[in-house]
# Entry
Amino acid sequence: MTQPLPRILKAGIVLIDPVNGTVLRVITMQYNPDSVSRTLQVQGIGEGGDRSEAMRLKGPAIETFKIEAELDATDQLAAPDSNPDVVKFGLYPQIAALESLVNPQSADLINQNVLAQAGTLEIAPTEAPLALLVWSAQRVVPVRVTEFSVTEEAFDALLNPIRAKLNLGLRTLTVDDLPFTHRGTSIFLSYLQAKERLSAKAPSPGLSVLGIGGIP
# Structure
């Protein structure tokens, strides 16, 4: 009997309301990237600090992600009846969804202008939805998009892009970026706690494997 293939989970970005946590949108990657580059910059006291502070961390590490993703509409164009939007627009909708992460809503810009014309002295920009990078159940991370680039590599007869490569730069939002009562802070703390639980599962062999019998 043929065994069913395991379900492959998608990575993606979820947008939620920063106040009540309501899911506003889910943006999945068509193909999961083969690699993800992460950098963690240590938040130490620094060389200029007191020597008694040398082992202290003043905050969570500054974590950044670099993700390369591919989009390809070829298979969807092969079944035009079930994918009418792809036939009409190509990959524009998927690309536009990701671009929405780095642009305010046009309605917010118009509203700000109306308030400015009415003589409002200070206009606070509308708070954008909170973006979460979801890469398995162990990695749900509040992030801010710091870099976005797209290379459109092929086009249909209407000049709609049908193949593209995306580069995303993301920065984890921590307790240093958000108020402690913010929804994003609780999600970051859950992410950090998940790392701590996983760390506890890593093997910790004796000193002999390092070729020493004790600490001098």
